[in-house]
Amino acid sequence: MLIRRPNRLDEIRTLSGIVHGGSLCALVVASLIIMGLLSVPVRAENPNVALSTLGGTQLWSDEHLRGGWRIQRHVWSGHHRLLDEQNVRHAWGSYADCLGELMKRNVAAPQNRHLVLLVHGIGRGPATFGALPDKLRKAGLEARAISYPSTRASIEAHAAQLERLLQRLDGVDEVSFVTHSMGGVIMRQLLAGDGAWKSRIVPGRLVMIAPPNQGSIIAQTLQPAWPYKLVYGAAGQQLTPAKVASLPAPDIPFGIIAGGLGNSKGYNPLVPGDDDGTVAIDETRLEGAKDFMVLPGLHGFVARSPEIELPVLNFLKSGRFENVRRHPNG
Questions:
Q1: DSSP for 145-186, written as a single string
Q2: Which residues contact 50 (CB under 8 A, 6 or more apart)?
Q3: Which of 1, 8, 200, 217 is least buried, going by the fewest C-beta atoms within 10 A?
Q4: CA 120 → CA 163, 182, 248, distances in Å?
């Protein structure tokens, strides 16, 4: 039996009446109603309007990839949607509903069976990597930047999401990774487990860009503050030296690219030594790395710098950041 989803005009009228009182209690009630409306069971045969979306930053997790299409899950309601390469929604409902719609469209599997997943950091999205995914695809790699609700769940939950996505991949024999910031910590959590996906997909190489591999002194300093807790959620509370140090180094070949200013003080006076404004160069280091280099740049921009494209591509193909200009601290 189909369950009728409330009309959007009805929702707006209801919420307007609740919020009109202006009290904190009213706002809380309104929030609960919104979450309740989002949780109404839906079916793929409900009419779908091909809406352009923002791609899911902070509220949606990628649960399945095929070509440039994605099935995403909403972090609060648990319902799914199907997006194309331009982030246009083509279906919504359960995971099975969206998968069925994807199969109807005969979206081609990757031509290159070596997939590169790009995993952004906390508070960010796939746009973190700028033109890097396109550059990797032009070089012959199947590269996709994924989305996950980085501020809405724990590092363990993010690793579990990535494991589900890997387990559902088809047409892929090998997978490598490029991460930014907390994405590298999530990869360490993921690779520490014995996921079933490893029995059919070979883990390749890993490039970690500006990773807080030793934890972050900034995160540790801000951890008790309620605004930090509110904005960065459970994962933000875990980016401390004690938590990150408990994770083993990746068991696949990995290289590290840090950002820095090129002197002994760095961008941020609150961070010891050279830094990218958020993470110190020394905080990025991790024993076992096959290569290490530093590029000039701030934390939020180093992953999209044109200078990073060649070393990332080199490492994915050969395991070294060779033939590139080196920063003095690298």
A1: E----TTSS-HHHHHHHHHHHHHT--S-SEEEEEEETHHHHH
A2: 88, 89, 90
A3: 1
A4: 16, 7, 20
Each residue's pLDDT expressed in tens, for the chain with a length of 330 residues:
333 344 443 433 444 443 344 444 444 434 443 444 444 444 546 678 898 999 988 999 999 999 899 999 999 999 999 999 999 999 999 999 999 999 999 898 777 889 999 999 999 999 999 999 999 999 999 999 999 999 999 999 999 999 999 999 998 999 999 999 999 999 999 999 999 999 999 999 999 999 999 999 999 999 999 999 999 999 999 999 999 999 999 999 999 999 999 999 999 999 999 999 999 999 999 999 999 999 999 999 999 999 999 999 999 999 999 865 555 565
This model's pTM is above 0.90 = no
248 and 115 inside one domain: yes
Assigned token pair, 316: 């994915």
Whether residues 184 and 256 share a domain: the answer is: yes
Residue 88: DSSP 8-state: B
* Host H or E run for residue 243: helix 241-245
Vertex 64: Cα angle to 58 and 66 (nearest 5):
120
Domain membership flag for residue 328: no
**Same domain, yes or no, for 195 and 124?**
yes
CA distance 286 to 213: 6
* Co-location of 85 and 127 in the same domain: no
Chain centroid to Cα 142, Å, comes to: 17
Residues 262 and 195 in one domain: yes
Q: Range of 255's domain?
A: 109-318
